């Protein structure tokens, strides 16, 4: 078995109202920052999966990303995996 | 004793699910009693519903609303039982956080987004029932605006345009936000629509019509002492419908007002 470290980035889908992104964007003027647009606020979930192969670990993450970390009606997700790849004895 | 829908006092038994973080369960139990039911709590770890005639998912912050409001609650043992109950045609009502749980579980259509104004809102709103022939609104009366409080940060009803059209066609829009005169609120920028819900939707039904969710809190408007009893007819509709569903006349069930 090996451990695989993943990150799942979840964002509101394009076209879905993102009040948090809008609020962040609205605050930029107070910082004296101009020329920034398209701010979207989401969440990032990092996790370690123990599995015999990377393919199987990835399948677990896919399922969690689709069923738990994101709501497919309103959010999209993208999976990254970190390069930490640790073999465990036994 | 399991599977017997009526309690010792002969009233229709209705379950109120208690998740860690639920905070309207006691108010809901009380409101259901005022509406003439025997109301019993159902712990989130139990995998059965004890033979209740209907289930209410109350408001609160189940599992701290972590990740997304309602999503973690969705995977609790009691929700498997609630899903099976709903699939058999059992009556299920989700209030506020309970609505969010139902939406996350896919038991009602759509999703609840962060309020457009970003703020948590706790105040009275007015809603009107779009349909008066459902198990949740049969005793609501003439469709006049109901004054009922909201208390939520994520209540902006969202579904894509095709789904919204389908909901309208199927008569699945149960409640809408309205102004004091009963006029439907606009989607955005209208104070009568507190959270910016699309098409001013405050509550919806599933296709079959036996599962409903709404953001406002009928149990917080269930007796005059609370400032409004406009929510009581919603709870009474549920109790009467549940009673009828188990084959007994609601008229035979005494209504306990102010008794406990």
SSE blueprint:
The complex is a heterodimer of chains A (90) and B (260).
Chain A: E1 2-12, H1 19-27, E2 43-51, H2 54-69, E3 75-87
Antiparallel strand pairs in A: 1-2, 1-3
Chain B: E1 13-18, H1 25-34, E2 38-43, E3 54-57, H2 71-74, H3 77-87, E4 91-95, H4 97-104, E5 111-113, E6 121-129, E7 146-152, E8 156-158, H5 161-170, E9 173-177, E10 201-205, E11 211-214, H6 232-245
CATH class call of the domain at 2-15 and 42-87 in chain A: Alpha Beta
CATH architecture descriptor text of chain B: 3-Layer(aba) Sandwich
What is the residue-averaged pLDDT of chain B? 92
Overall outline of chain B:
globular
Spatial strand arrangement across the major sheet of chain A? 2-1-3
The amount of beta strand of chain B, in percent, is: 15-25%
What's the arrangement of strands in the largest beta sheet of chain B? 2-1-3-4-11-10-9-6-7
Number of helices of chain B: 6
Alpha carbon gyration radius of chain B: 17 Å
Beta content of chain A comes to: 35-45%
How many β strands of chain A by DSSP? 3
Judging by the overall fold, what is the CATH architecture of the domain at 2-15 and 42-87 in chain A?
A: 2-Layer Sandwich
Structural class of chain A: alpha+beta
User: In CATH terms, what is the fold-level topology of chain B?
Assistant: Rossmann fold
How many domains, in number, for the residues of chain B? 1
Task: Give your account of this protein's structure.
The complex is a heterodimer of chains A (90) and B (260). Chain A has helices at residues 19-27, 54-69, and strands spanning 2-12, 43-51, 75-87. By secondary structure, chain A is of the alpha+beta class. The longest helix of chain A has 16 residues, at 54-69. Chain B has helices at 25-34, 71-74, 77-87, 97-104, 161-170, 232-245; strands at 13-18, 38-43, 54-57, 91-95, 111-113, 121-129, 146-152, 156-158, 173-177, 201-205, 211-214. Chain B starts with 12 loop residues before the first strand and ends in a 15-residue tail after the last helix. The model of chain B is unreliable at 248-253 (pLDDT under 50). The chains are: A alpha+beta (90), B alpha/beta (260).
């Amino acid at each position: 078995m090996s451990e695989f470290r993943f990150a799942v980035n979840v964002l509101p889908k394009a076209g879905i109202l993102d009040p948090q992104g809008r609020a962040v964007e609205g605050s930029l003027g107070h910082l004296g920052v101009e020329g920034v647009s398209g701010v979207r606020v989401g969440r990032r979930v990092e996790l370690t999966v123990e599995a015999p192969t990377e393919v199987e670990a990835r399948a677990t993450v896919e399922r969690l990303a689709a069923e738990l970390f994101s709501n497919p009606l309103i959010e999209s997700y993208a999976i990254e995996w970190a390069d930490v790849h640790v073999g465990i004895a036994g | 004793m399991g599977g017997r829908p009526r309690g010792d006092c002969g009233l229709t038994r209705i379950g109120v699910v208690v998740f860690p973080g639920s905070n309207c369960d006691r108010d809901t139990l009380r409101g259901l009693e005022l509406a003439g039911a025997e109301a019993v709590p159902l712990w989130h770890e139990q995998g059965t519903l004890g033979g209740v005639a209907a289930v209410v998912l109350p408001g609160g912050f189940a599992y701290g609303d972590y990740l997304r409001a309602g999503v973690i609650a969705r995977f609790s043992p009691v929700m498997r039982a609630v899903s099976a109950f709903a699939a058999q045609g059992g009556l299920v009502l989700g209030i506020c956080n309970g609505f969010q749980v139902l939406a996350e579980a896919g038991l009602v259509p759509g999703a609840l987004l962060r309020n457009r104004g970003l703020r948590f809102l706790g105040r009275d709103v007015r809603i009107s029932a779009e349909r008066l022939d459902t198990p949740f609104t049969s005793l609501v009366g003439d469709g006049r605006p109901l004054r009922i409080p909201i208390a939520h940060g994520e209540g902006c009803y969202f579904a894509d345009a095709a789904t919204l059209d389908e909901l309208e066609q199927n008569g699945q829009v149960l409640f809408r936000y309205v102004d004091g005169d009963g006029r439907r609120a606009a989607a955005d920028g209208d104070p009568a629509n507190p959270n910016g819900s699309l098409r001013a939707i405050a509550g919806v039904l599933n296709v079959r019509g036996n599962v409903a969710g709404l953001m406002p809190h009928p149990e917080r408007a269930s007796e005059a002492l609370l400032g409004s009893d406009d929510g009581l007819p919603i709870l009474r509709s549920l109790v009467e419908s549940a009673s009828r569903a188990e084959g007994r006349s609601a008229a035979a069930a005494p209504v306990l007002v102010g008794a406990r």
